[in-house]
Amino acid sequence: MLTNIYETSLALLTDLYQLTMSQGYWKSGRSEREAVFHLFFRSNPFRGGYTIAAGLEYIFDYLKQFRFTAEDIKYLSQLEGNDGRPLFATEFLTYLSELKLSCDLDAVPEGTVVFPHEPLVRVKGPILQCQLLETALLNLINFQTLIATKSARICAATGGDPVLEFGLRRAQGIDGGLAASRAAYIGGCAATSNVLAGKLFEIPVKGTHAHSWVMSFDDELSAFEEYAHAMPNNCVFLVDTYDTLEGVRNAIRVGLRLREAGHEMVGIRLDSGDLAQLSIEARQLLDAAGLTSVAIVASNDLDEAVITSLKAQGATIAVWGVGTKLVTAYDQPALGGVYKLGAIKNEKGEWQPKLKLSEQAIKTSTPGMLQVRRFQNEAGAVADVMFNELNANLDTVVMVDPLDPINRQPLDGGLNAVDLLVPVVRNGDIVYRHESLTTIRERVEQQLALFHVGVRRHENPQPYPVGLEQELYDLKTEWIHRARSIQTPL
Ligand SMILES: Nc1ncnc2c1ncn2[C@@H]1O[C@H](COP(=O)(O)OP(=O)(O)OP(=O)(O)O)[C@@H](O)[C@H]1O
Ligand SMILES: O=P(O)(O)OC[C@H]1O[C@H](OP(=O)(O)OP(=O)(O)O)[C@H](O)[C@@H]1O
Ligand SMILES: O=C(O)c1cccnc1
């Protein structure tokens, strides 16, 4: 079971406008009106071809802590509007203090490969409640999905060599550091240096030593000897404090003495200079000394591009320590996920599709209560089709490319079909079984294997087909026309 990260009430972890709109829904008698929202992103991060969904378990933790306590209500009661009078009505605050979530959430399991415009989470319930959840859900899913994806890319670049996540010191605060360690492990990292993340999430913890250890002695050899004395079963010597190849020679001296004492040196770490050249030279020195099992660990601002380049240069690095660029998603610091209303019930209790128009077709949201069906054959995933659960006849599925509607592809009934969104919360209660991070990591591997290498490559990846089921496409087109006419002046 995930240890609760959050032990405080979290209903106020939201943008003020969610609460002002909520008072609006309440005052206009529409707070209980049923609505459906979708959380999705519009483009794969890092100019990549895929994205790894993550963060769902944190949503469960957040929902468990969703309540307006007496202190929260007191705080809200003190907020003032422009005229200096209370922003919120006392009766509305009483309503909030008695609020119990009754939403249904459907979500894509963590570790699933997902694509732009596909809902990662779908929230159905009283519109006021759906609205109150928006900001926190985006906060939780956007960040962890981004970092899990970055991690998967870095791990793909190492081609299976272990990646150690070293990012805590450069992460965005305490919570960012913990969530990043979790997401990095989901994406494929072998271990973290973050000990609290290790304890909370059962992630293996690993580490070497810092330059300060070497600098605290008069010479490097004494530093390595003392470290070996203190930690004979965890010796990875950082060799670049003064002269890297001299450092390797000192490590070898200590490694051979350790062996005589019945221990094996685990590795050396390179943290500066030309990592390809130094790793090749260090490997030669280690092998010549008979220390063939000693691993070369490298760190220093690594990311998937540098790792790919180092591999191409024949670097003999066996373990990769990656911090800053992983946990901060350095080259793209936000996923840009959004949360849009798909449908709302009218006074008669009938679902009304809703969409948000945009100048750019790609930004116009898709109406309905959406589900994603992934079609697969023996070779892997063929296409994902979004459909509207409110009005779907899926006996024969014709997929329409929303950006090129002439491109209509019938999907053969012989294909396997899996619906990506699964029930996770019903009437406010979590109904999804807890998944270990091991299960989630395995899912990432299995899922990535379903996709063509062209979709997975980092340079100019092939777009994977994601389309709208024909009836949904027609519905969207109809509602685009209707929405435009709403705006057309008489
Ligand atoms: N052979 C290589 N090919 C491509 N990139 C490399 C190679 N070796 C190191 N790098 C990367 O180059 C970047 C800068 O390395 P550089 O050697 O300039 O800095 P540094 O070694 O940290 O400098 P300093 O000695 O001041 O610490 C780092 O991201 C590092 O991982
Ligand atoms: O480069 P990153 O991918 O962010 O990996 C983490 C970095 O953090 C440490 O450096 P730092 O200078 O903070 O401490 P040190 O004195 O132990 O090298 C470590 O040596 C790595 O270089
Ligand atoms: O254990 C390490 O080598 C380590 C830990 C944090 C940051 N950099 C390196």
TrEMBL record:
Keywords: Glycosyltransferase, Ligase, Phosphoprotein, Pyridine nucleotide biosynthesis, Transferase. Residues 373-476 form the Nicotinate phosphoribosyltransferase C-terminal domain. Residues 187-345 form the Nicotinate/nicotinamide phosphoribosyltransferase domain. NCBIfam families: NAPRTase_put, PRK09243.1-2, PRK12484.1. Pathway: Cofactor biosynthesis; NAD(+) biosynthesis; nicotinate D-ribonucleotide from nicotinate: step 1/1. Transiently phosphorylated on a His residue during the reaction cycle. Phosphorylation strongly increases the affinity for substrates and increases the rate of nicotinate D-ribonucleotide production. Dephosphorylation regenerates the low-affinity form of the enzyme, leading to product release. The keyword Electron transport does not apply. One of its GO terms (biological process) is NAD+ biosynthetic process via the salvage pathway. The gene is pncB2. It comes from Gimesia alba. Catalyzes the first step in the biosynthesis of NAD from nicotinic acid, the ATP-dependent synthesis of beta-nicotinate D-ribonucleotide from nicotinate and 5-phospho-D-ribose 1-phosphate. It catalyses: 5-phospho-alpha-D-ribose 1-diphosphate + nicotinate + ATP + H2O = nicotinate beta-D-ribonucleotide + ADP + phosphate + diphosphate. One of its GO terms (molecular function) is nicotinate phosphoribosyltransferase activity. The keyword Nucleotide-binding does not apply. This is Nicotinate phosphoribosyltransferase. It holds the Pfam family NAPRTase_C. InterPro entries: Aldolase_TIM (IPR013785), N/Namide_PRibTrfase (IPR041525), NAPRTase_C (IPR041619), NAPRTase_N (IPR040727), Nic_PRibTrfase-Fam (IPR007229), Nic_PRibTrfase_pncB (IPR006405), Nicotinate_pribotase-like_C (IPR036068). Residues 12-142 form the Nicotinate phosphoribosyltransferase N-terminal domain. GO terms for cellular component: cytosol.
